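hiii, so i know i said id send this last week but things got crazy w the move. better late than never?? heres the sequnce for the chain we talked about at the cafe, plus the structure i predicted for it. fair warning i was half asleep when i ran it
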Amino acid sequence: MNNPKKLDRARVRVDFNELIQDENTYCVLLSQTDSCEYSDGNTVLLKEGMNIFVYEFNAYDNDTDEYLFADGIVEQINGRIKTNAKWWCRINQNGITVATYDRKTQKLIDTY
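okay and structure toks below
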């Protein structure tokens, strides 16, 4: 399920379970190809050094929706780790923000 109305801007959906520590920062895998899709449906061609905005959405049985947000820089992995992915996002110094919403009231419950 994708609910972009909670997104502050168009973002690329990622899986933060694929978070990797590299050079004292964290990276999350983006794509096996040279492009990926933004939450607004537009396709972006990935380029080394470009800014990118990523998110993960999780819907839980207790009627809560959780969003994880991060911003960072696109980098080619170039064999730094063993993966099928070609690109990752190096998350910037702001890290990952988590926001939890009550699905029934559509109100923010918590953010950290």
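btw The two ends are 22 Å apart (CA to CA). thought thatd interest u
miss u guys!!
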